[in-house]
C-alpha cells in the first residue's frame, strides 16, 4: 500500500480502505492520507483510527475529519487530539466535540481551546468543562464564556475559576454569576469579587451571600453594597458585616438598615456605628436601637 500513488489511494473503494490492516495503514505517507476522500476517511474502522500516527492525523483534511462518526472521534487518543490543527478542530461538529473524552479535552493546548467556536463551547458536556485546566480556562474569550450555559458555569472547577481575569469575569452574564455554586463563590479572589458588576451582585442568592468570606465582603465596592437587596443584607453573617468599610456602611439605605437583625446590629463596630448618619439612625426600629446600646 505504501507504494501506491496518491491518485491510486484515492481510487480505493471504501470497502478496500476498511479492509486495510493497521500495519498497512500506518505505512501511508502524509500525501497518501491527504488523498483520502471524506467517504474513505468515514470508512476507517475504530482500530484503524487508533493506529494512525499524529502526523497522519494532522494530514487528514478538515472536511474529511468532519465525516468521521462520533464513535471514531471518541476513539482518538489524547495525543492524536492534541495534534489536530485549528482548522481541523473548527471543522468538528458539535456532536463530534461532545464525543471527545474528557482526557482528550484536557489534552488540548491553550491555542486549540482559544480557537474553538462558541457553538462548540456551548456543546461541551459538564464533564468536559470540569476537565478543562486553569491554563485552558484562562484563554477563553468573552464570547466563549458567554456561550456557556448555567450548568456549564457551575461545572467549572474552583481552582480554574479563580484564574479568570476581571475582564473575563465581567463578561459573564448575571444569570451565569447566579449559577455559581456556593463553593465557587467562596473561592473567588477579593479582586474578582470587587470586579463583579453591581447587577451581578444583586442577583446572588442568600446562600451565595452567606458563602462569601469576610475578606470578600470587605472587598465589596460602594456600588455593590448599594445594590444589595434587603434579603441579601439580612443574609450577611455578623463577622462579614463587621468587616464592611465605614464608607460603605454610611451609604446603606434606610431599607437596607431596617433589614438588619438585632444580632447584626450588635455586631457593628464602634466605627461603623459612628459612620451612620442622623437619618440612618432615625430609621432604626426600637429593637435595633436597643441592640445598639448593648
Which terms summarize this structure?
single chain, 294 residues, mainly alpha, 36 helices, rod-shaped
Can I get a quick summary?
The protein is mostly helical and 294 residues long. 68% of the residues lie in helices and 0% in strands. The chain has helices spanning 6-10, 14-19, 22-26, 30-35, 38-42, 46-51, 54-59, 62-65, 70-75, 78-82, 86-91, 94-99, 102-107, 110-115, 118-123, 126-131, 134-138, 142-146, 150-155, 158-161, 166-171, 174-178, 182-187, 190-195, 198-202, 206-211, 214-218, 222-227, 230-235, 238-241, 246-249, 254-259, 262-267, 270-275, 278-282, 286-293.
Q: Beta fraction of the residues?
A: under 5%
- Helical percentage: 55-70%
Major β-sheet profile: none
What is the rounded Rg?
Answer: 28 Å
Low-confidence residue ranges: none
Overall morphology: rod-shaped
Count of individual beta strands: 0
Note the total helix count.
36
Which structural class fits the helix and strand makeup? mainly alpha
Word description of this protein:
The chain is 68% helix and 0% strand. It has 36 helices and no strands. The mean pLDDT is 96. It has helices spanning 6-10, 14-19, 22-26, 30-35, 38-42, 46-51, 54-59, 62-65, 70-75, 78-82, 86-91, 94-99, 102-107, 110-115, 118-123, 126-131, 134-138, 142-146, 150-155, 158-161, 166-171, 174-178, 182-187, 190-195, 198-202, 206-211, 214-218, 222-227, 230-235, 238-241, 246-249, 254-259, 262-267, 270-275, 278-282, 286-293. It is mainly α. The longest helix has 8 residues, at 286-293.
